[in-house]
Design goal:
132 residues; mainly alpha
Length: 132
Amino acid sequence: MSIPVGPQPSFFDQIGGHETFQRLVDAFYDGVAADPVLRPMYPEEDLGPAKERLVLFLEQYWGGPTTYSQQRGHPRLRMRHNPFKVNPDARDRWLAHMRVAVDGLGLAPLQEETLWNYLERAAFAMVNTFEE
């Protein structure tokens, strides 16, 4: 007897789609808004545009809509972060706020690990200086 095999749902769908990524990003930026090192890296008065960009990026990365690329082109994450001094302290602060946000989602352990592993690798990849 064969088991029908259809397309597997994307990680985006598995963890709850747009709502989940919006919750993640909202919680993350709650921490960033009060962080004296990270907040200055967001030149807009309102964190709204940065929130929207991160939601769109993460959704696309994890198999959701491709709105990010349609609006902004290729992500080019290192290039987009290059104007900012991303040192190990900034990376660690970013990860601390993101850890709180991920923990708040209540994902299944494998989903949480999958998401966290990506976020951690991405944060380490964005470091562009070791100056204070």
